[in-house]
């Protein structure tokens, strides 16, 4: 949702922030106790809480009467690449396919390219980590390499990318081909976007270098923006903080629990594994990518931005997960931004 408003309000980023902070929970709740509840009793109603969420976002776009589409954004990116448009980024709205468990991306660029796809050994049943929504839903007349091939609304792609049951349902696209795969939040597979981004970068570099080595050194900057991740305790740390090269210790601790805790332990393990496991796993994929291209004369520099939770007041160290931000939560976000904006300005220079 934030990425959608960032693209829609490129000329005035402050409007993107304002629109991102607006609530959508009321619309979702109304649909949940209305059409969705009636559907559970057999009523055949088309609109539910997922569409209510999408309409809430789409109504806050610059021109709701003329919806933004992935195809239009793909054209803007193409014009920028060829020098006839102001800078406009590529977008990847990643999701997870329920029926297969694979990552998928609604994208405004070619993804994966035909050359990148052909490099996988089909005899070993290899495939890209993330698949194109164009191929999954046949959005581009069979040409899965196209970006933004169909006039799919950006609000639809963003909503499907953020479909987190049970607040927003697992959903599908009604297409002529009738492929009824369902998608949910991209965070089920790639919570931090590192895996999908790594594949996108690898594909792009292969395409630009024609599968070889760069004759002239190339450098890329990868900015990773997270939220209050640094509010949690480090899992490992040096025994002597003044000697980081010395021995390390496992810092995590736990307490004894009763039998009732066993009911929540599996869910707790899943949630913690989703965050820690995906972050470390994504970093390993990114590290392999960096090492691969270093030998081919391309340097990928990583810049990590966390909202500095440990520098904020205690009430601001809890991540706001509600889709209806309170005024204190907004104040905490502003407080965090004040502490990192000089670092962002330095990167822009």
Outline the structure in words.
With 349 residues, this protein is an alpha/beta fold. The chain has a domain of 153 residues. Helix content is 40%, strand content 11%. It has 13 helices and eight strands. The strands form three sheets. It has a four-stranded mixed β-sheet. The protein has a two-stranded parallel sheet with strand order 5-8. Helix 1 packs antiparallel against helix 2. The radius of gyration is 22 Å and the shape is globular. The two termini are 27 Å apart. The model has no long low-confidence stretch (mean pLDDT 83).
Cross-sheet strand order for the largest sheet: 3-2-1-4
Mean pLDDT: 83
Return residue spans where pLDDT drops below 50 for at least 5 consecutive residues.
Answer: none
Rg calc: 22 Å
Quick recap of the structure?
With 349 residues, the protein is an alpha/beta fold. It has 13 helices and 8 strands. It has a domain at 1-22 and 60-190.
Annotate the secondary structure layout.
Layout: H1 2-8, H2 13-20, H3 25-33, H4 35-40, H5 49-58, H6 70-81, E1 92-97, E2 103-107, H7 114-118, E3 130-132, H8 133-136, H9 154-161, E4 183-185, H10 187-190, H11 194-209, E5 218-225, E6 236-238, E7 248-250, H12 265-294, E8 298-305, H13 327-348
Parallel strand pairs: 2-3, 5-8
Antiparallel strand pairs: 1-2, 1-4, 6-7
